[in-house]
Amino acid sequence: MLPKVFFFVFASFLPLRVFAGPLKARASFTVNVGQEGFTYSPNSVDASVGDTIDFVFPGAIPHTVSSSADFNQPCVLSTKSNATNLQTPLGGGTVSLTVAVDGSQWFYCATPGHCQSGMVFAINPGPAGSPTSIENFVSLAEGRSISTSASTRTSTESKSLPSSTVVGAHSTAAAAATAGSTSDASRLFSIEGRTLGTALGAAILFSFVV
Questions:
Q1: What is the mean pLDDT of residues 12-34?
Q2: How many domains does one find in the chain?
């Protein structure tokens, strides 16, 4: 007699769900290096992680795309381990850079004299008129002072800050204390305006009337 063989098949009748978010298209930018003098054209781009920047080198004059130490040191090479230092290919050509981090990134041409002529580049600089704008970065590279709307606004506000006056006068408590009374001896002065609404940096003038 043959043994009976039983086969058990387990099946899930639950619907299979596949989660797939939309894939974001990666952007690509082209930057001409030194084809219009000591400049990158354009000298800044707004890019996201994963985007590609193609630097086109003409080859006639050597140029670089080197990471700056920081915004305030445009012409100093960064010592960070992930610093960029792209060189002109032999005979010219295109070198691609993939954006790996978020935020602002600062670059310059390390060929002597080029950065000091304003040859700098930025990924995601601040907007025009802000302290970290590409215009200010160029000015710092050229050794010029920078001015920002933020500093101008602060200076203007400091000139118009209000002042408040608090008037203090001897109260009857002083006389009571002099007369030997101790009930009001702890209150030697009365002050008009015990609370003030004022701005940071405003002057408060205490005027004492004897």
A1: 70
A2: 2
